[in-house]
Write a structure and sequence with these properties.
Blueprint: H1 2-32, H2 45-77, H3 80-83, H4 95-98, E1 131-132, H5 133-139, E2 168-177, H6 186-206, E3 213-215, H7 218-227, H8 230-241, E4 245-247, H9 262-279, E5 286-289, H10 297-305, E6 310-313, H11 318-327, E7 331-334, E8 346-350, H12 366-369, H13 398-413, E9 420-428, H14 434-452, E10 459-463, H15 466-477, E11 490-492, H16 514-543, H17 552-568, H18 581-610, E12 630-631, E13 640-641, E14 643-644, E15 651-656, E16 663-671, E17 676-679, E18 685-686, E19 688-694, E20 700-713, E21 718-725, E22 732-733, E23 735-739, E24 754-758, E25 765-768, E26 772-776, E27 783-788, E28 794-796, E29 802-803, E30 825-826
Parallel strand pairs: 1-11, 2-9, 2-10, 3-4, 5-6, 6-8, 7-11, 14-16, 19-22, 23-24
Antiparallel strand pairs: 7-8, 12-13, 15-21, 16-20, 17-18, 17-21, 19-20, 25-26, 26-27, 27-28, 29-30
The protein binds zinc ion (ZN).
Zinc ion binds next to loops.
Family: Belongs to the glycosyl hydrolase 38 family.
Enzyme class: hydrolase
Cofactor: Zn(2+)
Length: about 850
């Protein structure tokens, strides 16, 4: 912050110096210019070259000036670079052409509506599931014993002949987990890692048709797509056609499943799916979520309704994983709690071990599995923490190594009901170097060739996409054939709160960085409002030639950009609050920038909608027709309410209802006069209340007041009211009773409001209306009793505040974890 201020000051100083010298140069240039154009021919040669030099010099100054202005703009607002993806990256120079969809109607997105979905949680509950998560928590001992090589599990044994009649099918699924921001910003990760991963992918998958790869984050994929040529794009399409590359989930990000509203989850999924449909003609079939911190059935429902049939989840409490492994319920149909039938069922694979990295995905023993992560070969940048490195596979060791790996595969398969096994192969930002592709794919191909050419091993191992695995799984269990009994158990419930070990519960992130969690919700409502208003305005624009000045294309881009910034923030290190500080500022700047743009779209769309005579429409971006009722000055600043200057001339106040229902609600705005009154559209004065705006416990603002009134709003509609200052304003003035309890500072009031100051309360402190009466504690001010007036019953209430300390252990509460030192202590 300090640094950026210094840069700003320095930049401004340089800017001033340049402008001043530029001015001087122009000033002098004028002296040197011929007084009359007729004298041009008689200009001495020497003077001409001097003039030429001066013009050159001026041009250089102008260029420098432009650069300085752009630097200042960048350092002060820090917007254009971080928001308009691709400017930093030379490969993605054309976001506006490639990334944004033209203003053309999309293919109609018709989704079937199941009648059952419209029934709200019936009283009788759900159809019985085989596994109900609420019951599982009662069964688990949460004792966390040492499980041996599989620390959080148990010893796995098998009979060598188990696969004699039905071979083990192994699908090794290479993947690269790309966080759209965490330790680096989205753009920096893209520049340093992601673009290289995707570029190498195109080359390396083409080398051998047996090679497979999956990708999930469309935010990255679309940014990369914008910067590649048509030849590369064709190669990608071919890889998808040949099922070597599969797009999994297809969301803008791999979204967090605890903090976002379901609207946001759907919105980021639509953004990704629309992009895929328009650019690749792809509809994802399987979900892939290896890193979100706990899993929600809402996500399962959204995926199912988005046309996906299968999904994979990973970060689940270790005790649940162990329990499910022992019962062989790691693969199940996930059903909504309220579903009376089976229409919400989606086939779900839960990964059994600690992590999605290679040491924890081939089988139960990480020391063995790590030796099959060929990026960790000796001499590389990373090694195995279990101190046994991988060996390159060659003729001399392939038999032994294949056996070691097959043993892990067999043990892992014992945790599932079928002989179809999924083995992910990847980690964070893997496959960025070309050599890593060779190391993994070549060594594994040697192992697979060996395994597959030895029938006595009863195994078929291959690279696979996620859908290759699920197709084989469905085939082996005949679950897609009608009348076949369900092979997998049905599960209902959720997988919160996640713990990866001991008492490390990941509930800290539920409340990390609350400022940005709130900003996301504000952007969400603005985005929804802007989309509806823009669509309504667009209907008028298309009908009327008088509205052609309306910036349809420009605002469409702003809406798309806002949806993408909003979608980006649903990432499991963004809305969770677990990214580094500078990454948080990057997200905040994107949200803030889009909020500003959405306000612009809202203001311009409403302008079109409220104009009675469309012929008078003029689009002037420097003088917007409306201003919004609050202003946020920076990405990390709190919004301030706009104070409306009310005079004798009525001022219009337009209120928008983004809901599909008619609403009657209290609307409050700030005004500069206590003599304000509110008129409805018919010009009739309506009931209003003027209240003080408090600037502290005992100070009222001397020049700002709040006017509140009941507004009636049509569904998805606008209502116009008017504010006017009037000597005989009939608005009701609020009255205040301030309990000073012996404090010396008196309430500062300008006499407009009646203020009753109480040193001591002799009677109960109560608030009441015609429905209820509330009683508060005289000492703490907290609610103690509620009396309902219709039945006369009194209900005692206890409100308290507790605080938690943090442990003395090495691991402490933080952005991710909530690790208290014991029970909460009452503090109020
Ligand atoms: Zn992640």
């Amino acid at each position: 912050m300090k640094l950026s201020r210094q840069i700003t000051v320095l930049g401004s100083a340089i800017f001033c110096v340049v402008i001043f010298s530029l001015y001087l140069m122009l000033d002098r240039g004028q002296f040197d210019q011929p007084k009359s154009p007729h004298r041009e021919g008689g200009f001495p040669k020497g003077q001409l070259s001097i003039l030429q030099e001066k013009i050159d010099h001026l041009e250089r100054l102008l260029a420098e000036n432009n650069e300085i202005i752009s630097n200042i703009r960048d350092s002060v607002i820090n917007l254009s670079d971080s928001v308009k993806d691709g400017l930093k990256n030379p490969e993605a120079i054309n976001i506006s052409r490639g990334s944004f969809s033209p203003l053309l109607p999309s293919a109609p997105a018709l989704l079937p509506i199941n009648k059952e979905d419209c029934q709200f949680a019936p009283v009788s509950g759900s159809q019985k599931s085989d596994v109900q998560m609420l019951d599982v928590y009662d069964i688990l001992p949460f004792d966390n014993p040492d499980g041996g090589v599989w620390k959080q599990g148990f010893d796995i044994t098998y009979d060598e002949h188990e696969w004699d009649n039905e071979i083990l099918q192994v699908f090794l699924v290479p993947h690269s987990h790309n966080d759209p921001g965490w330790l680096k910003t989205f753009d920096d990760y893209f520049r340093d890692q992601t673009q290289h991963i995707l570029n190498n992918m195109v080359v390396k998958l083409q080398e051998d048709k047996q090679r497979k790869f999956i990708w999930s984050e469309i935010s990255y994929f679309s940014k990369w797509w914008d910067g590649i040529d048509s030849q590369k794009r064709d190669a990608v399409k071919k890889l998808i056609d040949q099922q070597q590359l599969e797009i999994v989930t297809g969301g803008w990000v791999m979204a967090d499943e605890a903090s976002p509203h379901y609207f946001s989850l759907i919105d980021q999924l639509i953004e990704g799916h629309q992009w895929l449909e328009k650019n690749l003609g792809v509809k994802p079939k399987a979900g892939w979520a290896v890193d979100p911190f706990g899993h929600s059935p809402t996500m399962a429902y959204i995926l199912k309704r988005s046309g996906l049939s299968n999904m994979l989840i990973q970060r689940i409490h270790y005790s649940i994983k162990k329990h499910f492994a022992s019962k062989k319920t790691l693969e199940f149909f996930w059903r909504q709690n309220w579903d009376l039938g089976s229409s919400t069922d989606i086939l779900c694979h839960m990964m059994p071990f600690y992590s999605y990295d290679v040491p924890h995905t081939c089988g139960p023993d990480p020391k063995i599995c790590c030796q099959f992560d060929f990026k960790r070969l000796p001499g590389g940048r990373i090694s195995c923490p279990w101190r046994v490195p991988p060996e390159p596979i060659h003729e001399g060791n392939v038999e032994h190594r294949a056996w070691m790996l097959l043993d892990q595969y067999r043990k892992k398969s014992k945790l599932y009901r079928t002989k179809v096994l999924l083995v992910p192969l990847g980690d964070d930002f893997r496959y960025s170097d070309s050599s890593e592709w060779d190391q993994q794919y070549q060594n594994y191909q040697k192992l697979f060739d060996y395994m597959n050419s030895h029938p006595e091993l009863h195994v078929k191992a291959q690279f696979g996409t996620l859908s290759n695995f699920f197709e084989a799984l469905r085939k082996t269990t005949n679950i897609d054939e009608s009348n076949s009994p369900s092979f997998f158990p049905v599960l209902s419930g959720d997988f919160f709160t996640y713990a990866d070990r001991d008492d490390h519960y990941w509930s800290g992130y539920f409340t990390s960085r609350p400022f940005y969690k709130r900003l996301e919700r504000v952007l969400e409502s603005h985005l929804r409002s802007a989309e509806i208003l823009y669509s309504l305005a667009q209907v008028h624009v298309q009908r009327s030639s008088k509205l052609q000045a309306f910036p349809s294309g420009e605002h469409y881009k702003l809406l798309t950009e806002a949806r993408r910034n909003f979608g980006l923030f649903q990432h499991h290190d963004a809305i969770t609050g677990t990214a580094k500080d500078w990454v948080v500022v990057d997200y905040g700047t994107r949200l803030y920038h889009s909020l500003m743009n959405l306000k612009k779209v809202i203001v311009d769309a409403v302008h079109v909608l409220v104009l009675k005579d469309k012929g008078t429409y003029i689009y002037n971006p420097s003088a917007p027709f409306f201003s919004m009722d609050d202003v946020q000055k920076a990405q990390d600043a709190l919004p301030q309410k706009t104070v409306i200057k009310v005079t004798g001339h009525p001022r219009s106040l337009v209120i928008y209802n983004p809901l599909e229902q008619e609403r009657t609600s209290v609307v409050s705005v700030y005004v500069n006069s206590p003599k304000s009154k509110v008129l409805n559209a018919a010009g009739k004065t309506i009931k209003a209340q003027i209240s003080a705006v408090w600037e502290g416990a005992t100070a009222m603002s001397p020049d700002t007041y709040q006017v509140s009134f009941l507004a009636h709003l049509p569904p998805l509609g606008l209502a116009v009211y008017q504010l006017v200052e009037s000597r005989d304003a009939e608005s009701v003035k609020a009255e205040y009773t301030v309990f000073t309890r012996g404090r010396s500072n008196k309430v500062l009031s300008d006499g407009i409001f009646h203020v009753n100051e109480l040193d001591n309360i002799v009677t109960d402190l109560t608030i009441e209306n015609s429905y209820l009466k509330l009683l508060f504690s005289q000492t703490s001010g907290l609610l103690e009793q509620i009396k309902l007036k219709d039945d006369g019953k009194t209900h005692n209430v206890k409100v308290g505040f507790t605080w938690y300390g943090t442990t003395n252990n090495r691991d402490k509460s933080g952005a991710y974890l909530f690790l208290p030192d014991g029970d909460g202590k009452v503090c109020l």
